[in-house]
Amino acid sequence: MGLTGLRRRVFALAGCVAIGEPVAMVSVAYAQPSFSGPTNYPAGDGPVSVAVGDFNGDGDLDLAVVNSNSGSVSILLGGIGGTFGAPTDYTVGVIPLSVAVGEFNGDDDPDLVIANQSVGTVSVLEGIAGGRFSAPTPFDVGGFPAWVDVGDFDIDGDPDLAVANADTDDVSILLGEPPIDGRCQGARATVVGTNGPDTLVGTSGRDVIDAGDGDDVVRGRGGNDVICGKDGDDTLLGQGGDGRDTTSSCEG
Predict the structure, then answer these.
(1) What per-residue confidence (pLDDT) applies to 82?
(2) pLDDT value at position 219?
(3) What local confidence, expressed as pLDDT, does residue 7 receive?
(4) What number of other Cβ atoms are within 10 A of residue 152's Cβ?
(5) How many CA within 13 A on the CB side of residue 112?
(6) Long-range contact list for 221-224, CB < 8 A, 24+ apart?
């Protein structure tokens, strides 16, 4: 075979075996993705982002859908066979664009974090047994937050947040702190008493009430409260909320 014929054979077998060897051309078949036709479920006004989690602990995956126009998140609880129930809506911030699932308060119920574009915040909604959620708690980030995700960036066991800010061209990292565990947290208390006899009443939101010493009467009023009595003959009443208030004598 001349050089010209050899070149022709090399080009014809380019990418195959050495020159002069028999060639077996193998056709590799790949499985093609396949889906059923769509089944549509209603959400809110202007849904733009969705996250998945088992919010009510029944083993079926549920949906959290952020609705930009209505400033809300719709929770659709999953049923058998990939079906979903009617949405339950919770108000969040202004023009929410993104939602992620995390476990931020140590109670094993999945929580939500939502990026609110127009107000430069993320809102955290704490999960409650049965697939319900608390009122949102806002945290400041950069300008026009467009996306939020969850990860343990400092490897301390507490989930952290990463938020992409479209207007300020940066990303905000919010490192998670250990959740309040029901013991007295004086530096983080929202209502603080004296060392004498006090009558303390919390707000309708989530409070950390440190009564101090003395014979105190403390009423949480509403929200998921942490109430610390310390020394003395105290009366600690959660009142309101969802019945998951934490009381602690914290004596000593």
Answers:
(1) 94
(2) 60
(3) 47
(4) 13
(5) 36
(6) 223/134, 223/135, 224/126, 224/134
